[in-house]
Each structure stands twice: as C-alpha cells, then as structure tokens.
Design goal:
Elements (H helix, E strand, L loop, with lengths): L2 H4 L9 H30 L6 H24 L4 H20 L12 H11 L2 H20 L10 H89 L3 H32 L4 E4 H8 L8 E6 L7 E4 L1 H18 L5 E9 L2 E7 L7 H4 L19 H11 L3 E7 L2 E8 L13
Parallel strand pairs: 2-4
Antiparallel strand pairs: 1-3, 4-5, 5-7, 6-7
Length: about 425
C-alpha cells in the first residue's frame, strides 16, 4: 500500500457532519438496545412466538455496523454520504425486522418516520428525499412479502395488543424525534451565539481600524495649523523681547509655545501608534520588561504596586508589545484616576491552569451596575469633559480579545478590578515556568 493511501483525512471534531455522526452513533446504540429489549419482551413476556434467530442476527448486524462506524470516524472525516449510508442501512434493517414480525400489521412499522426525521435534520434535501423514497419502497415491499405472526386467541385480543403496541411505538418514535430535534436546536443556538461573538469581535476590530484612521487623519490635518501657530508664537516671543515686555507676558507666551509643542508631539505619537499598534506583529517579550515599560512615567500621584505571584516576570509572552503595553497602561491609568491620593493601585500577575492573569485593583468607590455594563463602549466615559474620550477600556478589550483572551470588569463599593486573562498558548514554549 502506498504512503498516500495510508494517510487518513484529518478529523475536525467541530464540523457539523462530525458532530451529527457522533449523535447518530449514540442514537443507533439506543435503537439497537430498544429493539433487542422489545424482541425479548414480546417473545418471553407476551408469549408471542417470534423467529428469534433472524431477528437477533439483524440486531447484531446493526450493532456491528455501529462499531465499524466508530472505527471509521476515528480515522476519517464524516461526510454526508457516510451519514446517508448509515441511515439507509437502518431503513433496510428496520425492514428486515418488520418482515419477520408481521410486516405492515406490526404496530412498529411507522418507525420509518424516525429515520426520515433524522435525515431531515442532518442531511441536505436531496439525501433526505432519497432516504424517504427508500423507506416508501421498503414499506411497499412489506405489503407483498412478509411473515405473519403466529397469534393464538381471539381477534379482540389481537386488536388489543395491536393498539397497545401502537401506543408504545408512538412513544418510542416521539421520544427519539423530540430528543434529536431538541439537540439540533441547542446546537443551532450555540452556533448562533458563537457567530454573534465573532460578529462582535469583527465589529470591534473595524472600530479599532476606524479609530486608527481617524487618529492618523487628525494628526495629519492638525499638524499644519499647529506648525503655523508655533511659528507665529516664536515670532511673538521675539517681538516681545525686543519691546521689553513684562515677565508675566513672556511667561504666558512661553507656556503657550510649550503647549503647542506638546500638542504636536501628542499628534505625532498618535499617528505613529495608529499605524504600529493596529498591524503590529506578535513578539515573544519578557513579561517583566513589558509591564515595566507599560507603567513607565504614568501620570498622577497614586502609587502603583506590581506583584508577581510566582516569578511570572521571567516568562516570555507572545503579544504585540506596543499595543498590549498601551492596553495595560490605559487600565492602570483609569485605576489611578478612580483612587484617592493616599490609596494605591495593585497590579497582581499570576498563573492559573496555564493561563496568565493580570488583575488591576483600585480602591475607589466602585462603578454602578448600569454604568459597568456600558464600560468598554467606544466614546462612553464617566469622566469630566476634556479628561478622557472613553476609548481606554475599548482598546484594551479589543487588544486582549484579538489575542484569544478576555478582559472582565467587576466592581463593588470597595473598588473595581480589571482582570486580563491570556491563554496558555501565548506563553512561548521553552520559556521558564514557575509554578
């Protein structure tokens, strides 16, 4: 056998066909067990003579085919044709059981509907109609060829047993159909929730890109008037010095010039950051250095205490360093602004179950629940006008989610905690591990 023939198709456990195959195999085990129990109960409890040998052979073949399906599913990806083959085999097996137990007069003859319902929820329309046609053909064949049951007793007794059997068959069919349809509905709901999360992440990425474009555009458009103001202010300073302006006027002119230069520097940084953080690549960076850089020159008088629980500073994490540093810096800065001058902000870094967590705790008065639910929306802020644009938490959450992590905010009257959680896959293989 060639190497090419030995290679199995990769199995994607999340593919809908693979999920459907798993559930179908479980249902077929249940059906085989139910058929075996029914055959034995009818033969030994109701004392209706049944041809046990062919019936048990059919049930054994059904169980063997299910075992073969399990072995096949471990090495090959499920495809609609494989699901349709299993369901078609079940239709043929059901026909065989009915052939030896009275044919159309058997109250379990409408269990064909179970196979059709399963096909309708797992297969495309063409396969479902093909299976329906097969069930109709097999059912029609039973009208012509079947072995009648050898019944003793009156016709009334036979009809009573027949009606009771129909009730049992109805319960079995209804249970299988309802169970499987509810399972499909739960799967669809889970898939819809996953799609909704994907749409939310995509929307945040689009907003982030729009903000980057806006920042770059603003920096470009404002650079010219700010440059003009800087030139004019320089000329005003020169003229004021020639005419002997008082010291207060000279200080005011100098302050205006410094603020213009500061605005130009901020715009230049915005322009650079817009291009660097949005498309920044992932780099294995020492965690201790990353945190230290992010917290350098933070404004405000509130102290920040950093604590690595088990030497996590030695770890190297695969993140975009500039973007992640800005995300962490923004959250810590918010915590400083929420705390009093005598309080301190605590940054606790630890590992749990392989994941890396970074908790930023402040000692402020907390955030009301109605406000907390909106924290993270672009341009939503509780700060005074001119103190913030409401983008810090939004940018931090977008950055972390892009890495496969999450950012959660919890709050109480004793303060607010922002929890970064980064998956274990971001820790570079081979980096020092401290447990």
């Amino acid at each position: 056998m060639s190497d090419k023939a030995q290679v199995a198709v990769p199995v994607d456990a999340t593919h809908p066909d693979q999920i459907n195959l798993g559930w179908l195999i479980r249902l077929r085990w249940s059906m085989a067990a139910g058929q075996l129990a029914t055959i034995l109960a009818v033969h030994y409890l109701l004392r209706i003579a049944l041809p046990l040998e062919p019936l048990l052979t059919i049930v054994a073949l059904e169980a063997a085919s299910n075992g073969a399906a399990i072995l096949f599913a471990r090495r090959h990806a499920a495809r609609p044709v494989f699901l349709a083959t299993l369901l078609a085999l079940d239709v043929v097996m059901c026909t065989g059981l009915l052939f030896f137990t009275g044919g159309p007069s058997n109250p379990f003859s409408f269990l064909y509907l179970v196979e059709i319902a399963l096909a309708a929820t797992t297969l495309a329309g063409a396969w479902t109609w093909a299976l329906t046609a097969l069930a109709l053909v097999c059912s029609a064949v039973l009208f012509q060829w079947h072995r009648p049951l050898s019944m003793t007793g009156s016709h009334e007794l036979y009809m009573d047993l027949h009606l009771r059997g129909m009730w049992v068959a109805f319960g079995v069919a209804a249970s299988f159909i309802v169970y499987f349809l509810l399972r499909v509905r739960r799967a669809l709901a889970a898939r819809e929730a996953e799609l909704q999360r994907s749409r939310l992440v995509a929307a945040r990425q689009e907003r982030l890109a729009s903000l980057a474009t806006l920042a770059a555009g603003a920096a470009h458009e404002l650079s010219t008037p700010l440059g003009t103001i800087a030139v004019v202010m320089k000329e005003l300073q020169r003229r004021a010095s020639l005419v002997g302006a008082d010291a207060d006027a000279m200080d005011d002119l100098r302050l205006v010039r410094e603020q213009v230069d500061r605005c130009r520097a901020i715009l230049e940084r915005m322009s650079a950051d817009a291009g660097e953080t949005v498309g920044e690549g992932v780099v294995a960076t020492p965690l201790g250095g990353l945190v230290a850089t992010a917290l350098t020159d933070l404004p405000g008088a509130v102290a920040v205490r950093t604590a690595f629980k088990n030497g996590e500073a030695d770890l190297r994490v695969r993140v975009p360093p500039r973007a992640f540093g800005q995300a962490l810096r923004g959250i810590v800065k918010n915590a400083q602004e929420a705390s009093g001058a005598q309080d301190e902000v605590v940054l606790l870094i630890s590992r749990a179950a392989g994941a890396l967590t970074m908790e930023v705790r402040d000692q402020g008065t907390g955030i009301p629940l109605a406000v907390l639910e909106r924290i993270g929306e672009p341009f939503f802020t509780t700060k005074a006008p001119g103190q913030g644009m409401g983008l810090g938490v939004f940018l931090a959450r977008t950055t972390v989610e892009r890495l496969g992590g999450e950012l959660r905010l919890t709050s109480s009257p004793a303060g607010t905690t922002a929890l970064f959680r980064l998956p274990a896959t971001l820790i570079e293989p081979g980096a020092p591990m401290h447990e």
